[in-house]
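pasting for the record
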Amino acid sequence: MFLLAACGGVHHPSPPRTGAEQPLSVVRYLPGEAMEWEVRWFGVLVGRVQLAAGQPGTLDGRRALVVRSLAQSDGALAVAKRGQMELLTWIDLDRQEPLAQAGSFDEIYTGEVLGSHFGPAEWPRTPWQAQLAGGQVAQSTHTALGLLRGWRASEGERAHIFVRMRHRVLRIDVVAAGHERVSSVLGRRRALRIDGVAVPVDGALEPLPGQKSFPASFWIDEAGAERVPVRIEIESGFGGIVRLDLVTYDPPDSLIARAPRAGAR
């Protein structure tokens, strides 16, 4: 969901391979929270992304939490073409990794219309294939974002994660670049900036030859306990930088009806 495309910003260099490597092991979502980002490309509004976390439940006998996101075209892009993409991930709370996934994401990745559309509770749920070579785990875009939220890093510390995007696996190397004050709906507050670079890998988890790498940056608010991603910038495959700015955050005790609803089932 967050590794797609479209908006203007600053190109960040690949993270240096210096500093201590740290594991990313805690997927952080607060049950009942909801948030929304505006998506801009070259300074122009092109879409919105909403995300909500449900309440803990069980799936196939495992403790699970479902996270649901909805990306919709808006602004200039909606004038040319209206569209939306929905994604649900059931997270194994004990293993801290995806358990299953569902959604309309195939329409985005293939550019095709599937021919049949499902309601928000009717997308076929698919068991997640987490196993990779060498005992590594393939994360979903939802759990990858949750891992970055849960990373309490000192400046210069590094980490890496593997993310499965349909039939492709990306390795994302990240570094804690430092702290900055970022203005958002939460106010002007201190945030941890995480710079990263994503590169497609093969079955042996080696970079695929001739493939372009994509820089990305994430700003995680550290003024509150929620650790909300207040800004995300990702280089677009179409040129420019996709920039997502937080415009709404509803903490667990104030989840409102207009936010996408989610719950383990």
